[in-house]
Amino acid sequence: MSVMLAANSSGIPHATIAEGILAALLEQDPYEAIPAFDIKKRMKLLAGTYETYRRTVSVRVFVKGGLLYLEQKNPFLDSVVPLIPEDDFLRNYRFYTLTEGVRQPIEFQAGPKGIDLSIERDRYHKVG
User: Fold this and answer.
1) What does the pLDDT look like over 15-59, one tens digit per residue?
2) CATH dotted code for 46-126
3) Could you tell me the residue ranges of all domains in the chain?
4) In Å, what is the CA distance from 9 to each residue of 5, 14, 62?
């Protein structure tokens, strides 16, 4: 069995789409068979607004161009940085970013009460 895909545009993951169609035709779950689908699903799970205890500080995590980004805006900081995964398949939720050239760990923890985000000494909880 094979899949042929024709397109009149660029910038679309044609190979991943064809692999997903082939997996479905072979009665496989595309999210299990194609790593890119599972990664995208995990990124969507992590995206959202996170707040500290008593909502004193909030940050936003969003997906753009196949990467997660962390947006921080407050009176002292206004930044948007990419979150670089430590694991290529996002099996764990540990990332890092560079702050003034220094690697800064960032970790998401999924639990029964939702998703938490740790940045340095701060802990945030996903609220939206």
Assistant:
1) 667 767 766 777 877 777 777 888 889 999 999 999 998 888 899
2) 2.40.128.210
3) 1-33, 46-126
4) 12, 10, 25
